[in-house]
Amino acid sequence: MDTKRLVMVAVGGQGNLLASSVLAEAALLAGVPMGMSEIHGMAQRGGVVESALIFGNAQSTIISDGDADVLMGFEPAETLRALSKCNSRSVVITNLAPLMPFTVNIGQGVYPDLKKLQELIRAKTARLIAFNATTLAREAGNVLSVNMVLLGALTQTGVLPLTAEHVKTAMRRKTKPAFLDANLKAFEMGVAAAQTA
Amino acid sequence: MHKLLTNQPGERMLLLGNEAIARGAIEAGVAFTSTYPGTPSSELSLNFFQISKESDLYFEYSTNEKVSVEVAAAAAACGVRSMAMMKHVGLNVAADSLMTLAYVGVKGGMVILTADDPAMFSSQNEQDNRYYAKLSGLPMLEPSTVDEARAIVAYAFDLSEKLQEPVLLRTTTRINHSSGAVTLGEIRPRRTKGSFTKDPLNLVPVPAVARRLHVKLLQNLAKARELSEQSAFNIVEGRGRWGILCNGVSYNYVKDAVAELNIAGEVTILRIGFSHPLPVRMIQNFLKGCEKVLVVEEGEPYLEESAKTYAQEAGLTLPIRGKAPDLFSQLYEYDPAMVRKHIAACFGLAYTPPAQVDLSDVPPLPQRPPTLCAGCSHRATYYEVRKAAEGLDTVFPSDIGCYTLGLLPPLSMADYLLCMGSSTGTVGGFSKACDRKVISFIGDSTFFHSGIPGLINAVFNNHDLTLVILDNGITAMTGHQPNPAVDMAQLKLEGYGRVSIEAVVRAIGVPHVTVIKPYKVKKSIDAIKEAVAFKGVSVIISQELCVLYANSLKLPRRKPFRVSDKCRNHRDCMDRLACPAFYVWEDRIKIDANLCTGCALCAQVCPENAILPVKDAAKKG
Predict the structure, then answer these.
(1) What is the nearest CA distance from A166 to chain B, expressed in angstroms?
(2) Which domains does chain A have, with CATH numbers?
(3) Interface ipTM > 0.85
(4) A195 close contact with B: CB closer than 8 A
């Protein structure tokens, strides 16, 4: 089996860890060996949360610079920050809704221009899927389902050895029943967004 | 039922490394568990805490790592299988007990887990705790994967009982915080009560006894070395002329690199899982079969230096490489591409690393460091101390906890830090050695952990200083673990005592003690001014529950605030407090009502009184 490497980056509280656990469950259902690691020490304090998910017959649970097949960012500046994980064949998926770091608010640093950000990523990688996942999540009925929108987009790319059915079954097992309908809707909206992006 | 109590051997379950270790201990029949929380070990004890509520497993949050080792050692002296767990620097705190526990030994199996943190994701140093095994003479085991982490724990308990001494289990962050599929094993029954047989001539190490116990420890070390030679956790793979000696997660990177470089036929891998005492003959045999050896180990050259010694003893002159300017470093963690590159370089293989994207035209990105939460009471206390000390030349020693995040601007309230509890000692040194006002900060849990002796020292030696105890009612940084000042009834838990910080401080004889409520800004500033002006030791206890903890307790929430039209854009709120609930919209400060916790700090700081509570349900920003 081909090894596929996914890096996910988010700001603490965006639901990155739940997305990882859904994908891990989907891999278990699909019979795909998988390992992952997460750095989430200070996630609740507004820091960056990074997950590495490796599908297939690799033993490592972290991903080196240049080794990611897919980079999925929950926040545009964080996607750009993690671009070192990519190579020219990588697929990049990013939410386009910024979460302003407090450093920008107190005048330390400038938030990147979103148009320029997309141009940069598109020029350096095989494919960029960029859209406002936060708006779609809100339309789906739960603004917190940004993670499920992005999982939809990720599944649409077909890079990982997981079908939409695997992921949706995993969502049923791993997400709260009260949010399931909104989550499934969010997932489908993510699939559609990736098709047109 | 807790998922780690699932009694279905053979079932596959996706577990976090820390969960797998806890499961391994449960399978081994651990009955007594203790900890002081510390990343990356914290989820391990959280699972034991939860399991202890629904079973006869004993678990405690001890005041510090030394105490956690001591309670667990006594349990093991009674024949009860015990486990103490901590982060790597925690073992420094427990080291005094550990060194002599190695002499005194145990009856029941005892495992001490040390969770090392290469790359310092959440630590103040990246010390390599394999040297504690060497220093104490105790056996050490190290898993490479999550599944192996489960299996190695049962082996550790059996080994401990066989040798009648504690066993050190060393992990690194990438074991603790990785997840993988684990195959469940059988759960052995727990024996929660043991018996203690008096035997002072073996258990009380006065010099005459200790001299004999050291002989026994060395005999044990020889026995342990034979067990290491036979251990299934020291593995040889392949029969090639190039040798790779490795341990822990580095083994995974080696395996992937060997597959990707397609050199399996050329390589012999020796993976060390029983890392103290090392299997000398096994390593020498491995070296004899190789033309050249590369040692792949994060941290210090522990295996490398040993291998070189053993080679010398066996009269072998093959090159053994590891730490070198052109190869591996003692710094930070390793990764698969780094290991691939160095294996190729060491054995002269042609290798082109994957083409990374060119980042030269990516603009500098704004940093996103972790920060104090919206509404965090530490922000209020820091602002008030800064205000109260205006005009004074101050030094602010700090300590370990969420409040260390106050080092960043605009708060800039941390000037010096060593380790847990260091603030109460360093503050006295600064007060004597420089003519500046010294105000230090320590959290509630850290105060109990190791801050109290420093405060006693300050009173005894009559230092001139102010200590601010930031009492937010919980051990917040590591994920809301209880500490001795916590009201356990709030957590609906019975059978606990409670220690008042104020009573402890007064009992020590601190001449000036003030308790403040940091959300009352003016009153707090006045009280702090008075404490700071006091000549001698003054203590301020700033009491306010951690906002995240208060939310988890479902306490009533305060109304959020908004910036009204009265705002003249002074930006004192943003420039002095930088609460994450603020944002800038069309050059004006706004407050995100979903983040604002209603602490009202900014409302009291605003010179125009322009920040007002949100009245209507629409939560206008």
Answers:
(1) 16
(2) 4-196 (3.40.920.10)
(3) yes
(4) no
